[in-house]
Specification:
Number of helices: 3
Radius of gyration: 19 Å
CATH superfamily of the largest domain: Nucleoside Triphosphate Pyrophosphohydrolase
Largest sheet: 5 strands, mixed
Distance between the termini: 42 Å
């Protein structure tokens, strides 16, 4: 819902960068009447899925992330295609990135990744009863290593910083696996 103190004066034609579109919005802020330009990343919805096997393991992936120029440990996820239900996108991303299929995919939450500059939602899912169903089918620029880690090790991986991706940690938080920091 728009805020009464902010009046949208106009938007630039978005520039398309495949995974997001960049636009500039010009606003007037009341009561001072000041005007300013704000950058918006117009993004499709995303999904992240926590895949868990019947044996009590979490299926994690390691992949290179261009933003930090490092390999990170995370869970499968990606873009929700136009017209695709988020749960279907979660199942598709799980299969593409890991080769696993789930007995059940259940929603955990819908969150805003960064509403200061982005306009999309991230849908978080738990995938239960996962098993290998075929080979991974990563995108042409993805090199993904798939591994299984006991569920009980997730809090330590987060606490140590080995899992540091905030949206991945958010998914684990909704499963109750993020521990408060130890007292100092």
């Amino acid at each position: 819902m728009p805020h009464p103190s902010w009046t949208l004066l106009g938007s630039s034609e978005p520039t398309d960068y495949r995974i997001f579109r960049l636009r500039k919005d010009r606003y007037r802020f009341e009561p001072a009447g000041q005007e300013g330009e704000f950058i918006v990343l117009d993004c499709p919805a995303w999904v992240n899925v926590v895949p868990m096997t019947a044996e009590g393991n979490v299926v994690l992936i390691r992949q290179y992330r261009h933003g930090i120029r490092e390999v990170v440990l995370e869970i499968p996820g990606g873009v929700v295609e136009e017209g695709e239900p988020p749960a279907a996108a979660a199942a598709r991303e799980l299969a593409e990135e890991t080769g696993y299929a789930a007995r059940e995919i259940r929603p955990l939450a819908r969150v805003l990744p960064n509403p200061a500059v982005q306009n999309n939602f991230l849908y978080l899912f738990a995938a239960e009863g996962c098993r290998r169903a075929g080979p991974p089918q990563p995108d042409r620029f993805e090199q993904i290593e798939v591994l299984e880690v006991p569920l009980g090790e997730i809090p330590a991986l987060i606490a140590s910083g080995r899992i540091a991706h905030s949206m991945v940690i958010t998914a684990f938080a909704f499963l109750g696996l993020v521990l408060p920091p130890a007292p100092r």
